[in-house]
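Case 288 in the screening queue. Each case pairs one protein sequence with one candidate compound; here the compound is S-adenosylmethionine. For every case the pipeline is the same: read the inputs, emit a complex structure as tokens, and attach any notable structural observations.

Predict complex for case 288.
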Amino acid sequence: MKNLIDPQNTIQFLREHGISAKKRFGQNFLIDKRVLERIIEGAKITKDDLVLEIGPGIGTLTQALCEAAGRVVAVEIDKDMIPILEENLSYYDNYEIINDDVLRVDLKRLIEERDPSGRRIKVAANLPYYITTPIIMQLLESRMPISSITVMVQKEVADRMQAAPGTSDYGALSLAVQYYAEAVINSKVPPNCFIPRPGVDSAVITLNCYEESPVDVKDDRYMFRLIKAAFAQRRKTLVNALKNDPGLKLTREKVEAAIDELGLDINIRGERLSLEQFARLSDILGAG
Ligand code: SAM
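Case 288 output:
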């Protein structure tokens, strides 16, 4: 029989099964059905989709994904969750649980093995907040075929993903998101939609990934090395931040000449540059 967990009953479910949320794994379980629906709607999942879920927990979102998608692959680090997941998903035959740390899994290979056709997959998750940025960066930089990423994140991280140059939220994450995807915040989610309640507001954000980035750059890996160096020392001028980075091996003269060629002020900070300007800078500095 289908045994759907109503998120409203999650507290009772956790109590009955003697589960206490593990802080070290960023466990904040969803207890609001409307939020669950917003993730599913935001992700626009159909029966044609292979969906990757990160951190299924007790399987509340996973069940909804199994209903909506063709197939679900979920990666969960907490081994104590595995028997609970198997029990809660026993009605379904279109899922697979992988007990591992998502940051240690070769996701590109995992997906290629599940669907060698190269069809683009969707990612949906209520992410563990302590590693949101590394997970998003891993997904974006993995070069695996992804059509969209719909995730619950801290509101502050969602704002960083959408930030414009010159604002305090703007950084390497904003630029990576802009390069690979178009970001849409679907809804703001208050702490009382989770158990235990996180200390911050959350948001559901969808990143609609480009098949090809609208920004043209000769070597995007080099561009992101420049971006990381620029924001590692964001209070310094761009010239100082780049020349101080030992891996880049750039001289002051070379960086100043490149900034001048772009028609920018020599004392400009990296946080003022748009993605397009970082791309041009990368083409000039990476040319040898
Ligand atoms: N999906 C469930 C829900 O919405 O109620 C749980 C979400 S909870 C915010 C985050 C989940 O990610 C937890 O189940 C946690 O154990 C799992 N998790 C934490 N770190 C992880 C990692 N490195 N790899 C895979 N899963 C992880």
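Case 288 observations:
- The longest helix spans residues 220-232.
- The chain has a mean pLDDT of 94.
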